[in-house]
Amino acid sequence: MSAPLVSLKGLRVSFDGQAALRGIDLDVAPGESVGLVGESGCGKSVTWLAALGLLPGRASISGSVKLDGQELLPARPQVLDRVRGGRIAMIFQDPASSLNPVHRIGKQITEALRLHRGMNGAEARAEAKRLLDQVGIPDAARRLDAWPHELSGGQNQRVMIAIALAGRPELLVADEPTTALDVTIQAQILTLLQELRRETGMALVLISHDLGVVADSCERVCVMYAGRIVEQVPTARLFEAPAHPYTRGLLGALPPLHGPRRPLSAIPGGVPEPWAMPTGCAFAPRCAMHVSACDANVPEQVSLARNHRAACIRATLPAPHPETVYA
Amino acid sequence: MMRFFASRLLRAAITIVMVVTFAFIVLRLSGDPAQIIMGADAPPEAVDAFRTAWGLDQPVWLQYFHYFGAIFQGDLGRSMRDGRDAIVLVTERIPATLALTIPALIIKLGLGIPAGITAALHRNSFIDRAVMLLAVAGFTVPSFVLGLLLVLVFAVQLGWLPSGGQESWRHAILPIITMGVGGAAVLARFTRSAMLEVLGQPYIRTASAKGVPWRSVVWGHALPNAAIPTVTIVGFMVGSLIAGAVVVESVFSWPGVGRLLVVAVANRDLAVVQCILLLVAATMVTANLVVDLLYGLLDPRLRNQPKRAAA
Lengths: 327, 311
Fold this sequence. Notes:
Chain A: InterPro entries: AAA+_ATPase, ABC_Ni/Peptide_Import, ABC_transporter-like_ATP-bd, Oligopep_ABC_C. In chain A, 33% of the residues lie in helices and 22% in strands. Chain A is of the alpha/beta class. An 8-stranded mixed beta sheet of chain A has the order 6-7-8-3-9-10-12-11, sandwiched between helices. Chain A has a 4-stranded antiparallel beta sheet with strand order 2-1-4-5, covered by helices on one side. In chain A, 45% of the residues are buried.
C-alpha cells in the first residue's frame, strides 16, 4: 500500500465516560475505496465524525488522525475548516434533513465553492450548475433556485454529493448514503459514487450496515464490532475466506442466491453494552469458537494474508461451514 | 398567495367580531352602568332617565344591533361619564402607553434574543446556567411584584427615581424595566430552546462538514432557522403593545390605555371598554397576520404549500 492519505491510529471516543470507539487503526490510501460495515452503534459513523471534529463537545477523543502526515487531533478550527469539505468531504444518511431548508440548492453549493475554491458570483453559479450536471440532476440551471423540500430524497443526496465535490476532495466519506432511499435509487447513488471516483480519482470510504452494498462498491472491507475493527479484508477474499467469527456470522446471515433454500443463521445474543464490555474479546460471549483464552486480553489484529488482518486469536483456524457454527 | 391572505383576513375579522360580542355580553351581565355611574343613592327616576338616555332600557339584542350598526358607520359610542367620544378618549392615551411599551419591546428583543443565543451556544456551561437562572427568575416573578420591588429599592430606599406618575422621562424608567425584564426572560428561554433544536439538526453538521467556520454556521445556517419559531413570540409581544401595560400602568399610575381600561371597567363605561377591546383585538389580529406573512418569508416550505396542495 502506498503512503496513506488518511491514517487513524488508536482512535478512541467516549461520551460521558462511555466508550464508543475503543481504538481504531485504519489507513486509507489515495484513490482507494474502503467499506466500513457493522451493526448500528458499532462506531462506524463516530469514527469519521471524530476524525473530522464533527462530534458534539461532550465527546472526548484521543488517539491520532493524520492527513498526509499532518496531525488533525487536535487541530486549530481554521485548519479543520480547510480540511472539511476541501480535502475530506462527508455526506450523510438522511439527505432531506442534511440540507438547510431555508437556503436554495445553488446557495448551498456555491458556499462550498467560495470557501474552498474562492469562487464568487457568476463563476460560482456556473460551476455549481456543472456540478449538478455531473451528479446527474436534470435541468440543473433551474434546480439551482430550488429549495431542498422541492426535490426528492435521491435528488437531495445528489445535491449533497455535488456539495461534497465542490471542494475537490481527496477523500469522500459516505455515511450510509443510501439507507434512507428507495432500493432503485440506492443503486443509482452507488453507481454515481463509483463513476465519480473513477472520474476524480478521489478515495471513498463507504459506511454501511449492508455487506452487499459495500461488497459491490469497495476494494477493501473493514468489519467493525463494538467500537473496534475486527477484520480488514480485500472484498474478493471477504466471501471466500472470512476469518473473524463475527464476519462469518454476518455472512451466514445473508440469504444465499444459489442452491437450496436454507434457514438463515442468526448470531445469538446481542452487542455488549458500553458499560459492560468484556475484558477480552468483545465478541467472545456470542462466539461459537470461544475458548477461555479469548477472555484474557483484547485480541490484536493478526495478518492472515496480503491486506487481510483479523483481531481474533483463532482466526487462523479453518472456517467451519456457517450453518454448523450457529445451528 | 391571495387565497391564503383572504382566508387569514376573514379569520381576523371573525376573531374581532367574537371579541367585541363577548365583551358586549359580559359587560352587560356583570353590572348596571346606570346604577354605578349615578351612584347608589341616586333617585330611581334619575337612574331610569339615564337608562333611557343611553338606550339601556332597550332589549339587549337591539342594543347589540345598534352598537354594531354604529361601528360600521365609524361611531364607537360615547363615554357615559363625560359624554366625549370613546375613540377620542382612547386614542389620546395611546402615545403614553406606547412610550412605555415600545422601549420595553426594544429591551425584550435586545436582551432576550442575544441572551438566549448565548445560552444555547454555551449549553450546560456556567453562562448557560446563569442566563437560565435569571430567565426563570424574570419569568416567574409577576410584573406587579417586580414593579413594587423596583419602587421599593430605587424610589423609596435609594431615592434615585420617582415611584409613579408621568411628569418626565425619568418616570418612565421603572415601568419600562418592569415590563422589559419579564418579556426578555420569556424570549431568552424561547430563543435558547429554538437554537438548541436547530443546532442539533443534521444540516448544521453538513455545514460544518463542508468547512463553514462555526461563526458562519451560527449566523448563516442556525439563526435563520431558529428565527421561525421565535417570530411567534415576538409577534405576540408586538400585538400587546397597546394592551400589555394594564398592570404596570396601574402600579406606576401611568395614564395610558391600560389604566383607562381599568377605570372604565370599574365604572361599566361600556363604550370606552368596548372601544379599547376592539383596538386590542385589532392590533393582536394584525400582529398575527404579519407573523403569518413573515413565516412565509422565513420558511420556504410554508411558502410553497398552496402550490403543492394544488398539484
